């Protein structure tokens, strides 16, 4: 363990067993904060230190990992008492994970698996509003909601209020202004982000989704809309990235 | 219900129970036209008001919605006597819908389901010509045709008249000039829109389709062709969006 | 002149000077409606027939043409008593045109030059609302306005009502619903088209503009937004193409 | 039948039964060459006239058409004694076609079905060399070869001579220079077209293929390579479009 | 003025001059919060209400506006005692603005002009760190800094700490963790956002810049890098959009 | 000189001065046809051999070359009696070239400079029709025309016959069918290539041009249109590449 | 065999049986290095000469080839005693290959099949470090590792050290600096390549992978990141191309 | 200075003035190798440590920096005796730099400025061949050559050997195989990289250039060609990035 090794070096210096210049060489080029974080499997290096550094442990991105790999990583994290969150998990991998660990909650719409850690997460200040333009955006909203819950945040939902019927979102204005952060999830034209960005004074995080006709191009259209929002102060995460939006929101509520 | 709440406020003002400035505050920032339109399911907010505002009720975009969600929304709309139109519906969802509601007409080529409302739609003025460049464009044409019928419009078909044999479209010129609006549906080079746009004086709505060899790029090629049409006055909708073209045409015939 | 040639052939047949099968060969493959329309300069073939076919004469697209070419084409059109409209005209070419023809009205913001024809244009039914999201969209709006006037249409303006302050467009709702056709011009996120498309029941023609920060990509962002509008029935023309939108609108008002 | 109708008009003029100006009106705006070509099914308008106009009958593009549609169109063409060529035909549609028509030759690699017509095709002058860069390009080469045979052309093959081993193509130089036209088919870097274009003086038609690693982007990489060929005089057809290259080559050999 | 009109309606109801149901109709569909915000010039509709709604007045985006337009809008805003901020202002327009209004501070690197309002802006909580990868990113950083100051925020700078020398950013870690919000500005590979996103627990807003060699594509490369950041919780604004990042940061510090 | 060196080797073998296996080593890996072609300047290696190999000498692509470099290369080529053709030459470089060599013909519209060689070029069989959609396409057409003349080909022009007035191209059908090869040059929608491709049976070479409104994207729109032409047998060259189209046409006429 | 034929020619010259000028003609235009390399199957031309020319035999790219084709090519290569390496091999083709040849090692994660040749490969100098950003990048790393082994190189692995936890890669710095060449494999933001490029002085080869959320666009995002690396000297291969990176690395270790 | 500060800490521990755990806290999270490298100007943080870490000092990328900034940074680097290299320097900035520092060598074609350091660079092993496809690629080649010289490498040139005349590059084969590393610079089709990659066994670094006709898209075409090279082991740097290619080559020659 690195921290221990530094302590050893320092003790040796204190004891006169090691000269200052030798100690200097021993310490040079070492990223000391790595001391407690490297847990190397054959296929993964778990960043256990992240919980200390950023307030939540490493999250497992399920896409492209085998069920075996997910279970192995999850078990290492769980062993330390940290909470386990897997996103983009395939149905069969979720089943495998539930079979190998207790207390795993699977959300099939969100494609997530979650297992609470030994300690409850630090609660965020205020609530996060998750606003969706259409029913088809719900899986992304669910991913955000599961992530927020895992991070100690409280979320409210405002569903299916796309701008083609502008009164729908205006009617929910009170809920939007009551939130500390607003996550806007929309595909197709993605215009909801601009409208909401103009209605509230709080941070707005926009998530484009890959829903839509041909020239939506799997979400490029709403992505560009949101990046070009005429409502200043709207920020954007990747297409379908409900997880990322939730983490960004939680960074704000945990300031 | 919001309209009722406004009425209450007004009654209180009329009765002297509420001062004018207090009433003013109560009414500020409220989109009053939302009063009768919000019908919120867990996963959808139905815009019942749309039929009043735009002459046709909300249409259900089937892609990305589960069969259950489609049936639930459709049933809410049908209960009010409005007509139900579902586009991009998967075969099994269509089956489910037919099982759960009577009088549902499914068009498997168009991927639509339709259930007439209590009242017949207001008929449009004149007819809409649906022109296709090739046989492969027919599903998009069918979607347009079903939508037009649901909106009270009458459609004629001019099929497989791509410009590689220019005489084919010239031979059908009379049918094109007889229509109030012409919808041109074409993939590959999309050149038919420009030729038709030059032949008629009426509005031309172009629909690019995703049919074609590699560098058609799922419809980008004809989309760009149509946007760049040298025949002025051609307007364009999204790739494969027969539904959108039909609504645009119907807005014209219902002026 | 072609029509004369056909008459000659027919006279020869009537006179017995030409056999039927020879006449048939002579006539085959000839687009007879071309008879009076081809006026060939060295660098242009003027489509004089267009005024008959589509109700307005050929418009000169100024970009990529020299001042000499523009003046020569304009003079040929003016000689016939038709009205002359030049779009995308460079300042110096506009000066040259004003020097070479009388009664030429130049609009420097719209980059247009216009000279009325002998007859007044046929007036369109109703008016066309030109709605812009921001001040930077005004040149495109001007191009549309000049074109509409040339086509006999009457236009109203609703300026700078982008959705970041949604109340601005809602406050102008009466003007929007009063128009026969609405042209929505917006850059950046292009979201205004969807909001307007949901507010009115009339045809909406959207024009993306090339104004904006980096990832607007010279108008691709609002173009995609508009093509993916969640408000059904919105149609789209090319980036910055105020002229095309006006012609499309005029096709509708002249039905 | 239109040609007959024109003949009727002419006979009436010859007989004095119709005045010249009436005849003129009757003939105006008619594309006379359409007379014998329109054969309209519900879903297709067959361009029978094409064999007369361009030397080969309409070819059926199988993608996006149902087996029923293919069989129906093929049967109409075959009835007239013309040869039938279907490209991009799905295996089951090919089976159906063989069951419904005699003498149908199916090439599963090329995804084609061919049925000779009553007359043998006019032979082209010289031969066409089909050069491929790699084994994976063979299906496209086969499509070209089947098409060339159907058009009366004689093809030679130079296979797997990609430029990573430049001696391979240099060793086959004699075969390349002996051909009248060279079709170069390559994916990945598409560089073979430039090398061949520099070796021969004859027309070179390049076909990019969709084979390759990630940034080939389904053929965009070789498409761009070929469009930018530093060997002047190389022309390009669409990605994977062996059929189009063969038709272009045959247009040359049939001059 | 709309608020007055509502008050009139209410007074009439209070006086019995207007029935409740008539009043209801009069009020329906009106966005009441528009009452005091619309200030229409010929070319702009100023959103004065924004200061109330979002805590800062409308900002003038200088690109595409003439110097005259900018001065006119600025003067209207200044008249009300609000602060004036113009971004992307051309040098000559800045000169004109300084000539027409007193107290205008121009920052030529940031391309901004600023004139303080009657009241000092509400100070934000904590400070905002502005981190740049290279010297070429400084103009964007300046735009962010000017905007933050105008919004009442206090900014620190960490300059030229791109990841090619990873020790540079690690050496400044204390400054990063001390900030409430971190704005990361980087062109080329944009990798700094991911590294910073992993080092701090606070909100990180990434701004791609258009600096770099060919395949940076005017900022698309760092934009994509940032959207795909492996450090969860990084959000992104448009290319070169220092203004937008500052507003987003300020929304957070003003919670 | 390489051929001489081979001869030397052979003479030495014949004389017994060199053993067979040594000779073999000396000859191995040498591309013998390079013997007379390499003429190396500091900045260019002139392919004098090309005239022998492909029937025309190397052409100088002027873009990116200094006037000095162009003059130096041109002078080397002229010294050998070959004809000199420079494309994309800047006006001042053209002036310099005319000053340094006699008999140089400059075409400012085509941006070409040409100096005939000692021998007249071998005449091509038949003529090449150059068809343009609009006046703005003329510079590309001129480049093609100058190149064809230099290669010994005879060209006819069909100008400004875009498909928005379809009768214009139909009226010129005789000229199109009379040509051996047709070059179609069009920007915007590029649809003319498909129409011409369907009218004639001869080879059609399409050239997209960079003229047009926003979403033409500097010629991508017509490029894609032409690659996706529904008229089989149309081949395509690079955007604005009139030179390449001419060389491809000339390869056909010189078969 | 060509080399033999050249020898024959030389012998005939030595014997006086062939004149020098005849010999010259016989040898002209022949790429002599082709002599022993062309082994033509119907569908492939095996470049046996490559082992001599570049130190390793031709590798079979399995995508787009049938199992039969792969087995046939592999068997030809194996017959000569060369080693056989197949990449991107489908599971069933791998089974077929193992059934048809002995000693075939299949790596299902890497999608490779390998059969050692008669001679051991020449060992490279030093080792190659294969660094991956995440677990999902492992298949590409495996392809690189199998290829390196086949080429005689020795590889070390540094796994899952993405920059979101920068200490992870810093902790492995010693392993990175110990290698002769570093291959960095990363998807999503691809930022690891820049960080590693700044840490070591040795050649760094970056491989973008197609893993990630929407706007990764199948690897375009990390590809652009890597091409724009602010760490000078990083070179890039195609998306997911572990094989190519390994060959490039091996070219360096075999200098 | 950081290293000094660590030494201080250690001395204090050795002297008993500081407890071990306090020392531990003081040292934690510090990247110790940063001690001597941070030299912060207002606008730049110079990475002086880079010379130690990677064998050459920080290079100044001139684009986007003012002449003042360049001179200031250069002067700081020069003061330490390190060599100064500026790339992409504007002509006037180069003049300014020559005026402010002695011994500055400016290469106007390469757009570089270079000032040797106190020590001569460590010479690389072997030479680097710089191969260009055309004259227009020379500025990029010059940038590479200047950089190589600054890094202690020796370069040879093979100029204008594009594949349209394949004998040109074959004739220079000896020079290519004699080099340790080959840099291939090509625009348009970029095919030269694949041919060279197949000819030599040494590392090949490809540089796409932005020279060419329309669909070269400022270098995207050759970039994609090179990434998709069918010659395994070719690696690629950014468009026009001669500097990066030189650094990559030098990393190899300095192994």
Describe the structure concisely.
The structure is a homooctamer of 255-residue chains. The radius of gyration of chain A is 22 Å and the shape is globular. Chain A has 255 residues and is of the alpha/beta class.
In words, what does this structure look like?
8 copies of one chain form a homooctamer. Chain A has helices at residues 2-14, 20-27, 50-54, 67-79, 91-100, 138-150, 166-171, 173-178, 192-199, 220-227, 242-253; strands at 38-40, 45-47, 60-61, 84-87, 105-107, 112-115, 127-132, 154-158, 181-186, 204-208, 234-236. The first copy, chain A, is of the alpha/beta class. Chain A has a 5-stranded parallel beta sheet with strand order 8-7-9-10-11, sandwiched between helices. In chain A, helix 6 (138-150) links the parallel strand 7 (127-132) and strand 8 (154-158). The first copy, chain A, is globular and about 75 Å long. The first copy, chain A, starts with a helix and ends with a helix. Residues 28-38 of chain A have low confidence and may be disordered. Chains A and E meet through strand 11 and helix 11 of A and strand 11 and helix 11 of E.
Structural class of chain A: alpha/beta
What multimeric state do the chains show?
homooctamer
Distance between the termini of chain A: 31 Å
Strand order of the largest sheet of chain A: 8-7-9-10-11
Q: Count all strands of chain A and give the number.
A: 11
Query: Main interface pair?
Result: A-E, 37 and 37 residues
Poorly predicted spans of chain A: 28-38
User: What string gives the helices and strands of chain A in order?
Assistant: HHEEHEHEHEEEHEHHEHEHEH
- Treating each run of at least 4 consecutive H or I residues as one helix, how many helices of chain A? 11
Q: Helical content of chain A, roughly?
A: 40-55%
Mean pLDDT across every amino acid position of chain A? 86
Shape of chain A: globular
What's the main sheet of chain A like? 5 strands, parallel
Q: Beta fraction of the residues of chain A?
A: 15-25%
CA radius of gyration of chain A is 22 Å
């Amino acid at each position: 363990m690195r921290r221990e090794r530094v302590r050893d070096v320092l003790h040796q210096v204190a004891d006169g067993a090691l000269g200052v210049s030798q100690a200097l060489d021993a310490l040079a080029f070492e990223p000391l904060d790595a001391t407690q974080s490297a847990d190397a499997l054959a296929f993964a290096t778990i960043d256990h230190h992240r919980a200390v550094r950023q307030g939540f442990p490493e999250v497992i991105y399920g896409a492209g990992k085998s069920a075996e790999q997910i279970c192995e990583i999850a078990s290492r994290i769980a062993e330390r008492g940290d909470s386990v969150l897997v996103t983009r998990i395939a149905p069969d991998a979720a089943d495998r994970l539930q079979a190998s660990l207790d207390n795993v909650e699977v959300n099939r719409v969100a494609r997530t698996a979650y297992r609470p850690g030994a300690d409850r997460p630090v609660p965020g200040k205020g609530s996060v509003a998750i606003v969706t333009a259409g029913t088809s955006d719900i899986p992304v909203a669910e991913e955000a909601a599961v992530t927020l819950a895992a991070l100690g945040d409280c979320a409210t939902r405002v569903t299916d209020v796309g701008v083609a019927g502008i009164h729908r979102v205006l009617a929910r204005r009170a809920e939007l202004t009551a939130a500390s952060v607003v996550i806007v999830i929309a595909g197709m034209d993605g215009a909801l982000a601009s409208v909401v960005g103009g209605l509230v004074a709080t941070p707005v995080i926009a998530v484009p989704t890959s829903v839509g006709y041909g020239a939506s191009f799997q979400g490029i259209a709403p992505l560009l809309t949101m990046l070009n929002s005429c409502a200043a102060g709207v920020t954007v995460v990747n297409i379908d990235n409900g997880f990322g939006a939730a983490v960004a929101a939680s960074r704000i509520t945990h300031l």
